[in-house]
Design goal:
about 550 residues, alpha/beta, ABC transporter transmembrane region fold, Rossmann fold, five-stranded parallel sheet, four-stranded antiparallel sheet, about 10% strand
C-alpha cells in the first residue's frame, strides 16, 4: 500500500460515518434540486398558462415545503463538508509529519528534510482541494446524472439510452487522454517545486550571494527558471483546454439530440408540455453541472500530479513509497544494564553511496564507567559507528548486540532513552534557551541538579553572562546565539541528561583554549554519572581523558 493510499484509507476509516452521511445527503440534495428546479417549476408554469389557479398554488405550496427541506438538508451537508475538509487540511500534515518521524526512527534517511516543507504543504492543499472537488462537484454531479437517467428512462427508453451513451462517451474520452494530461501536469509540478526549492536554497545562502556579488546572476538565473516553468504551464493548459473544449462540444451534442427526441415525443403526444418543460430545465441544469465538472479537470489533474510528486519524494526519503505499519514499534519490553556492546562482523554502506564504511567489522566493548575515545581519519566511519549503535541506521550484514541482545529486536526509542547522542550539529529549536537545554531530559529533577553544577564553572558563566537562558529564545536554528554558545548548550544538554551512555561528536571543535579546558574538566567530573562516555574527536588535547581508544 503506497503512502497516499494508506492516508486515504486511514482518513476514510476515521470519517466513515460522516462521509457516508454526506454521500446520502448529496443524493437527497440532487433529488430536491431536480424537483424544485424542474418538475415543480414546470407545474407552476403549466397552471399559470392554463389558468388553473388550484394547480399553480398547490405546486407553489409544494415548492415551499420542498425548499424548506432542501435548505435544512443543505445546511447539514455544508456543515459536514466543512468539518471534513477542515479536519483533512490539518490531519494530512500531522500524518505526514508522524510518518516521517516514525519511519526515520527506524532507519534515518540521508536527505535534506527542509526540502519536504514545500511538498508537505502542497500535498496537504492538494488533498484538501481534491476531496473538496470530489465532495462538492464530482459526487453531486454523479448523483444528479443518476436522477436524470431515472427520469429519462422512465419516460422514454431511447431518450435515456442516448443520454447514457453520450455521457459514457465523455467518460471514456476523458480516460483516453487522462494519462497525457497527467504527464504534462506531473512535469509542470516538478518544475514548480524545483523553483520553490531554488528560492529556499537561495534565501538560506543570501549572505553568500550578497557578499560574493552574485545578486544579479541569481535574479537572472531564477528569471530563466520562472520563464521555463511559465512556458511549460501555458503549453500544458493549452493541451488540457483543447480536450475540455471537445468534451463541452460533446455535452452540447447530447443536449441537442436529447432535445430533438423530446420535441418529437411531444408532437407525437407522448410527452406532455409539463414534462417537456421539466426535462428542458433538467437539460439546462445538466449543461451547467457537467460543464462545471469538465472545467474543474485541470484542478483534479493538479491534485493528482502533486500526489504523484509526494510519492516520489517519500521514495527518496525511505527508498520506497509504501508503508507497512506492522513493522513499526513492535518490540518486546526489555531492561538492559548496558554493560557490554558487541559489533559482530558488521558491514555497512549508505544506500546512496558506493563507498563501504565497514566490512566485517568486529569489536567488543566492556563499558564499566569508562571514557572511550573514537579516533581516525575523516570519512573512516567514526560517526557511522555510533549511528549504527543507536539505530539511526541498520547494518547491511552482521549484528550489533547490547548485553547480548541484538539491537534489531530492541525498540530504537528505548536505546535512545538510554544513550544520548550529541552530534556536531549546533542548531537549536526556536524555543527558550532553557527549553533547549532540557530537551529530551528523562528526569527533570536530576537534570536541574546537574545543570546547577555545570553553571558553577567560571568559563560557562562567562560564556552566558549576557544571555538570559531562562527567558531568551534561541531563535530559528539558534541564530540568536554564537556558534560556541550553541555548541556548548548541546554539550550541556547531553551531560545533564541522566542516561547510561553519552556520545559526543567533536565536542571541542572551534572552542577557544580556555573554554575547551573547562569543558574537558566537566567531562572528567561528570563521568561518575554515566556508565560510559564516548568521544569522537580529532583533537589530541582530549586524548588524556580516554580509558580506551577505538581506532577506526
Amino acid at each position: 500500500m503506497n503512502i497516499f493510499s494508506y492516508f486515504c484509507n486511514k482518513f476514510f476509516s476515521e470519517e466513515k460515518t460522516n462521509i457516508i452521511l454526506l454521500s446520502l445527503l448529496t443524493l437527497l440534495l440532487s433529488f430536491f434540486y431536480t424537483n424544485i428546479s424542474s418538475i415543480v417549476n414546470a407545474n407552476i408554469i403549466q397552471g399559470i398558462q392554463t389558468n388553473n389557479i388550484a394547480k399553480a398554488f398547490t405546486n407553489y405550496k409544494f415548492f415551499i415545503i420542498v425548499s424548506v427541506f432542501y435548505i435544512i438538508a443543505y445546511y447539514i451537508y455544508k456543515t459536514l463538508q466543512n468539518n471534513i475538509l477542515t479536519k483533512l487540511a490539518h490531519w494530512i500534515k500531522y500524518q505526514m509529519f508522524s510518518y516521517i518521524l516514525t519511519t526515520n526512527n527506524e532507519n534515518m534517511s540521508n536527505v535534506n528534510f527542509v526540502e519536504f516543507i514545500t511538498p508537505i504543504t502542497r500535498i496537504s492543499n492538494s488533498c484538501n482541494m481534491l476531496l473538496s472537488d470530489i465532495i462538492s462537484n464530482m459526487i453531486p454531479t454523479v448523483a444528479f446524472l443518476i436522477v436524470i437517467l431515472i427520469y429519462f428512462f422512465y419516460k422514454d427508453f431511447f431518450l435515456g439510452l442516448g443520454f447514457l451513451l453520450g455521457n459514457i462517451f465523455i467518460f471514456f474520452y476523458f480516460l483516453y487522454f487522462w494519462q497525457d494530461m497527467f504527464e504534462y501536469k506531473k512535469k509542470q509540478e516538478e518544475k514548480t517545486v524545483t523553483n520553490e526549492r531554488h528560492i529556499i536554497d537561495s534565501l538560506n545562502n543570501i549572505d553568500k550571494i550578497i557578499y560574493r556579488g552574485e545578486v544579479d546572476n541569481e535574479i537572472n538565473d531564477f528569471n530563466e527558471k520562472t520563464k521555463e516553468c511559465t512556458d511549460y504551464t501555458i503549453k500544458m493548459m493549452k493541451f488540457i483546454t483543447n480536450h475540455t473544449f471537445i468534451m463541452n462540444i460533446i455535452v452540447y451534442i447530447i443536449i441537442f439530440m436529447s432535445l430533438l427526441r423530446m420535441i418529437r415525443l411531444h408532437f407525437k403526444n407522448k410527452m406532455t408540455a409539463t414534462t417537456f418543460i421539466t426535462f428542458l430545465s433538467i437539460l439546462m441544469m445538466y449543461r451547467d453541472d457537467i460543464g462545471s465538472t469538465i472545467h474543474r479537470i485541470p484542478n483534479s489533474i493538479e491534485s493528482f500530479g502533486r500526489i504523484e510528486l509526494i510519492l516520489n519524494e517519500f521514495k527518496k526519503m525511505t527508498g520506497k513509497n509504501d508503508v507497512d505499519m506492522k513493522k513499526i514499534n513492535k518490540y518486546k519490553d526489555l531492561e538492559l544494564v548496558f554493560d557490554k556492546i558487541t559489533f559482530d562482523n558488521v558491514s555497512f554502506n549508505y544506500n546512496n553511496r558506493d563507498i563501504t564504511i565497514f566490512k566485517n567489522y568486529s569489536k567488543e566493548l566492556i563499558l564499566n564507567d569508562k571514557i572511550i575515545g573514537i579516533t581516525g581519519l575523516s570519512g573512516n566511519g567514526k560517526s557511522s559507528f555510533v549511528k549504527l549503535l543507536i539505530r539511526l541506521h541498520d547494518c547491511n550484514d552482521g549484528n550489533i548486540y547490547i548485553d547480548g541482545q541484538n539491537i534489531k529486536t530492541i525498540d530504537p526509542s528505548y536505546i535512545r532513552r538510554n544513550i544520548t547522542y550529541v552530534n556536531q550539529n549546533s542548531r537549536l529549536f526556536d524555543k527558550k534557551i532553557m527549553d533547549n537545554i532540557f530537551y529530551g531530559c528523562k528526569d527533570i529533577t536530576q537534570c536541574k541538579e546537574n545543570l546547577r553544577e555545570i553553571l558553577s564553572y567560571s568559563k560557562i558563566q562567562e560564556l552566558y553572562k549576557n544571555v538570559d537562558i531562562e527567558k531568551m529564545r534561541a531563535g530559528p536554528l539558534g541564530e540568536n546565539l554564537s556558534g560556541g554558545q550553541r555548541q556548548v548548550i548541546n554539550i550541556i544538554s547531553g551531560l545533564i541528561n541522566p542516561t547510561k551512555i553519552l556520545i559526543l561528536d567533536e565536542p571541542t571543535n572551534a572552542l577557544d583554549p580556555e573554554l575547551k579546558r573547562e569543558i574537558l574538566l566537566i567531562l572528567k567530573n561528570f563521568r561518575k554519572y554515566k556508565k560510559c562516555i564516548f568521544i569522537i574527536t580529532h583533537d589530541r588535547d582530549v586524548y588524556y581523558l580516554f580509558d580506551e581508544t577505538i581506532e577506526i
